[in-house]
């Protein structure tokens, strides 16, 4: 028997909540074009952009209907023209919109060999969160050993990645989480101190107390809204706030006069630009992340693995904000 000609896939058929707009369909197995790989998908990590894609709120708005999913681990099946360095059977990780299916296309330039030390669910969770954390902490903020790092949403996928990488770099990591149930996850990821939002917590005052009045040298903020506002109150002299996203739903205002008076910087991070503008840096980051994974220093926190048929529920669960670590959809072996 030859390779199948059709595959199961999930499609967003209209914009709305993931559980309401994702439908399973049968599609032809795609053919790789020049510079592309056809990959048999093993696992797909769920990311917050999947929620935004379903709602029609992501910065990229594919034409309906479309296949969501932006991060996978899988096996190379075949390669298009002008592709070197990959052979059928290679286990790879990579990122591209449209991978929540049994087969997917990846740009060969955006595919990397999966670390042998990680299982499929962990490997599927490595690319976006850890690359985002790596570029945010090291490329944008130039985090130094001994600095104080404040990580918002420290029990989430990108937050646990930032906490692990911050601790690996020798920073003193303070995590912020949304509930008491998430404290242990943040601590296990490398946070020395964990603050729980709510219940009258004055975050800025708490950070200053924990740092002896110094404040946070680097802030990693995928939340925005009040998290950013509080961070601006407790950022240290020559501190850096790295803006990663707006999971809170509110885009905060950056007060230039406040940044001037307190002498801090606000740095934007759009990781998706690096594969286009500086793919060489992406390769370097993946090599370092693989080294750290093989050394046991970083390990993606996978809180749940669900079967392919339960993908809409997993994306909806992420939308609720109640998850920790990463949710992963198991697609194939």
Any idea of the CATH topology of the largest domain? Answer: Quinone Oxidoreductase, Chain A, domain 1
Please give the alpha-carbon distance between the first and last residues: 18 Å
CATH architectural group of the largest domain = Alpha-Beta Complex
Q: Globular, elongated, flat, extended or rod-shaped: what is the shape?
A: globular
Largest sheet: 7 strands, mixed
What is the radius of gyration? Answer: 20 Å
Number of DSSP helical runs: 12
Task: Extract low-pLDDT stretches.
Answer: none
Calculate the mean pLDDT score and round it: 95
Beta-strand residue fraction: 25-35%
By CATH reckoning, the class of the largest domain would read Alpha Beta
Estimated structural class: alpha/beta
The tally of strands reads: 15
Q: Element order, helices and strands?
A: EHEEHEEEEHHEHEHEHEHEHEHHEHE
| Residue share in helix | 25-40%
Overall domain count: 2
User: By CATH's scheme, which homologous superfamily of the largest domain applies?
Assistant: Medium-chain alcohol dehydrogenases, catalytic domain
Overview of the structural elements:
This protein has twelve helices and 15 strands. It has helices at residues 18-21, 48-55, 120-124, 127-140, 157-168, 183-188, 203-210, 226-234, 256-262, 274-277, 279-294, 311-319; strands at residues 6-12, 22-28, 36-45, 71-79, 91-95, 103-107, 111-113, 148-152, 172-177, 193-196, 216-221, 235-243, 265-268, 302-307, 326-330. The chain has two domains: 6-126 and 300-330, Quinone Oxidoreductase, Chain A, domain 1; 129-272, Rossmann fold (3-Layer(aba) Sandwich), CATH 3.40.50. Strands 3, 4, 5, 6, 7, 14 and 15 form a seven-stranded mixed beta sheet that branches. Strands 10-9-8-11-12-13 form a six-stranded parallel beta sheet, sandwiched between helices. It is globular, with a radius of gyration of 20 Å. α4 packs across α5, α4 (127-140) packs across α11 and α7 runs parallel beside α8. Helix content is 31%, strand content 27%. The model has no long low-confidence stretch (mean pLDDT 95). The protein has 333 residues and is of the alpha/beta class.
């Amino acid at each position: 028997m030859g390779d199948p000609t059709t595959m199961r896939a999930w499609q967003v058929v209209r914009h709305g909540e993931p559980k309401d707009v994702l439908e399973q369909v049968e599609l032809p197995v795609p053919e790789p074009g020049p510079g592309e790989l056809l990959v048999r998908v093993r696992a797909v990590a769920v990311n917050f952009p999947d929620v935004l894609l379903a709602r029609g709120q992501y910065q990229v708005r594919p034409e309906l209907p479309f296949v969501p999913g932006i991060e996978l681990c899988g096996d190379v099946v075949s390669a298009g023209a002008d592709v070197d360095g990959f052979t059928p059977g290679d286990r790879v990780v990579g990122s591209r919109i449209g991978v929540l299916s049994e087969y997917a296309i990846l740009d060969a330039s955006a595919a990397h060999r999966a670390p042998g030390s990680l299982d499929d669910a962990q490997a599927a969770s490595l690319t976006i969160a850890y690359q985002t954390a790596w570029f945010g902490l090291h490329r944008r903020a130039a985090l130094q050993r001994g600095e104080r790092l404040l990580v918002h949403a420290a029990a989430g996928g990108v937050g646990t990645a930032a906490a692990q990488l911050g601790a690996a770099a020798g920073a003193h990591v303070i995590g912020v989480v949304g509930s008491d149930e998430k404290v242990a996850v943040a601590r296990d990821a490398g946070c020395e101190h964990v603050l729980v939002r709510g219940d009258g917590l004055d975050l800025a005052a708490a950070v200053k107390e924990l740092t002896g009045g110094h404040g946070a040298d680097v802030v990693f903020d995928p939340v925005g809204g009040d998290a950013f506002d509080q961070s601006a109150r407790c950022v240290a002299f020559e501190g850096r706030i790295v803006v990663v996203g707006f999971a809170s739903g509110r885009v905060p205002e950056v007060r230039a006069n406040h940044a001037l008076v307190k002498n801090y910087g606000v740095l934007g991070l759009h990781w998706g630009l690096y594969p286009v503008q500086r793919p060489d840096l992406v390769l370097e980051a993946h090599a370092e992340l693989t080294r750290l994974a093989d050394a046991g220093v970083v390990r993606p926190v996978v809180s749940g693995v669900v079967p392919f048929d339960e993908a809409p529920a997993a994306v909806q669960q992420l939308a609720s904000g109640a998850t920790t670590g990463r949710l992963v959809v198991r697609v194939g072996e």
